[in-house]
Each structure stands twice: as structure tokens, then as C-alpha cells.
From TrEMBL:
Transmembrane segments: none annotated. Pfam families: ECH_1. CDD domains: crotonase-like (cd06558). Keywords: Fatty acid metabolism, Lipid metabolism, Transit peptide. One of its GO terms (molecular function) is hydro-lyase activity. The keyword Transit peptide applies. This is Enoyl-CoA hydratase domain-containing protein 3, mitochondrial. The keyword Lipid metabolism applies. SUPFAM superfamilies: ClpP/crotonase. It comes from Gellertiella hungarica. Belongs to the enoyl-CoA hydratase/isomerase family. May play a role in fatty acid biosynthesis and insulin sensitivity. GO terms for biological process: fatty acid metabolic process.
């Protein structure tokens, strides 16, 4: 099944801020808000809608977040936000709405019962870098770059810091946040922001392969595993083992685990039911 929304109208004018394509259990969401794929309120709301729909869909097993154009995302729409300074509250209500929409999106990605892969080709800056760091996996081209440059314009990247400091080591995250300098793909991999770096011409092929491999697994097992991964990360080691023991026992009682183990012992392919 494929549900495709065209990325652009004739002449290059944007038709939608988000391209959507579902193929073989993999939902590809393509940021299409030229020229910098800024995370405007409209785009954030569309992403929320698609994630909500994906969470409830039996057809969607894996999500990919990619981007159309030279930049992955330049983060928040500063022009949109600046225009609201003329509001009676100097923009406070709109700023709160924007930051909450973005933070809730990042939380939704983490809580989504399906894996999310960032496909990055180009610059991911500020909330764009936050989006990459929030995804479960991230694969980028060798010409991609990342930064949290808010400090350069008097606006510390405090909300991007949440995802960044959980993906990268503390001192490396602080380096990016305090200097605002751009790091290359190799440094991003060293910091832990991305999993793999590939040549531009192979990016989509590699990401699709990852997505296809993951989509072939039991959807219930993926849901259990992703939820447990993030839950145990906030616990002490003792608490984490107590929690994951309970998770594994319940997982063992699932039909998919019974089927998967049986298929392994019988040397046949498992047939997943998601139960």
C-alpha cells in the first residue's frame, strides 16, 4: 500500500509542509517547508497528526522522518515567532504554544510504540537537531552538519538541550550548546547523535533497508522493547533489572514470543500476529 502526497506543485511552490508516503509498513514523513524546513506551528501540528495516526495504525510498523531540500531543518520559525512580539503579551502565549507543541512532538516520538528513524541530509540546527536527537535511530550523509546555535542570537537552546543531552555525552552536549558551533557528521557520530554516516547517493537506500529489517519484526515486540528501553534508562541499575524482568516475563507470555521461539526451534519463518 502506498499513500503519497506530492512534495511540490508545478513551479516549485510548496503544496504541503509535510510529504507522506506509506509503503510496506514503513511510513515516510518528509519535511517540505522551504527554504529551511523550519518547524512552523503548521508543520508541528501536521507532524502531531501523522504520529497520532501512525500510533493507531496496524499498517505502520516503522517511521522515517526525512527532509526535502538542502537543509534537514533550521529549527523554529523565528520570523513567525518574531511577528508575534506585537501581541499584547509580547508574544508570550504564542511562544509557549510553539515550545509546547515542539516538546510534545519530541515526547510523542519517544513514546510512539513504533521505531522512528531520522534520515538526515544537510544541516540540522536548533530544534532541527533536537528532532534528530529525539528519534530512535539517525542516519546521515557525510556532508550533513549539526548545531545548537541559539547562544549566538541570545536564545539558549534549552529545549533542544533535553534531547541532545540524552543522546550525546554531557560535556559534548555542553560544547555544542555553549559555543553554538557547527559539528560535522563524523563528530556527530562520535558524540552519539547519529548511528551511521553514508554517502549521499546511498542515504535513502540504507535508511529503507534499516526500516525494512525492523518492520519485519513482531510489532508487539518492538512496542514492548522501545517502551522498556526508555523506561529503564531513568532507573537505577537494580530498579532497571527488576523492571525488565517483569517486562521479559510478560513478553514471554505473548503469542508472538511463543510463535517466534517455536519458529526458531522448528527452523521456519515466524508469522507475527501482534499479540
Amino acid at each position: 500500500m502506498a499513500d503519497i502526497v506530492s512534495l511540490s506543485r508545478e513551479g516549485g511552490a510548496p503544496e504541503t509542509p509535510l510529504g507522506v508516503c506509506l509503503t510496506d509498513g514503513v511510513l515516510r514523513l518528509t519535511l517540505n517547508n522551504p527554504p529551511a524546513n523550519v518547524l512552523s506551528v503548521a508543520l508541528l501540528e501536521r507532524l502531531h497528526q501523522e504520529l497520532d495516526a501512525a500510533a493507531d495504525s496496524r499498517e505502520v510498523r516503522v517511521l522515517i522522518i526525512a527532509a526535502h531540500g538542502k537543509l534537514f531543518s533550521a529549527g523554529h520559525d523565528l520570523k513567525e515567532m518574531t511577528a508575534r512580539r506585537s501581541d499584547g503579551d509580547r508574544g508570550r502565549a504564542f511562544f509557549e504554544k510553539t515550545m509546547r507543541l515542539c516538546a510534545d512532538l519530541m515526547l510523542k516520538i519517544q513514546k510512539l510504540p513504533k521505531p522512528v528513524i531520522a534520515e538526515v541530509d544537510g544541516l540540522a540546527t536548533a530544534a532541527g537537531c533536537q528532532l534528530v536527537a529525539s528519534c530512535d535511530l539517525a542516519i546521515c550523509t557525510d556532508t550533513s552538519a549539526f548545531c545548537t546555535p541559539g547562544v549566538n542570537i541570545g536564545l539558549f537552546c534549552s529545549t533542544p538541550m533535553v534531547a541532545l543531552s540524552r543522546a550525546a555525552h554531557r560535556k559534548q552536549a555542553m560544547e555544542m550548546l555553549l559555543t553554538g558551533e557547527t559539528i560535522d557528521a563524523s563528530t556527530a557520530k562520535e558524540f552519539g547523535i547519529v548511528n551511521r554516516i553514508v554517502p549521499k547517493q546511498y542515504l535513502t537506500q540504507v535508511v529503507n533497508k534499516y526500516a525494512s529489517v525492523i518492520a519485519s519484526k513482531s510489532p508487539l515486540t518492538l512496542k514492548i522493547g522501545k517502551e522498556a528501553f526508555y523506561a529503564q534508562a531513568d532507573l537505577s541499575t537494580d530498579e532497571a533489572y527488576d523492571y525488565t524482568i517483569r517486562v521479559m516475563v510478560e513478553n514471554m507470555l505473548a503469542r508472538d514470543a511463543e510463535e517466534g521461539i517455536g519458529a526458531f526451534l522448528d527452523k521456519r519463518h515466524a508469522v507475527w500476529t501482534g499479540e
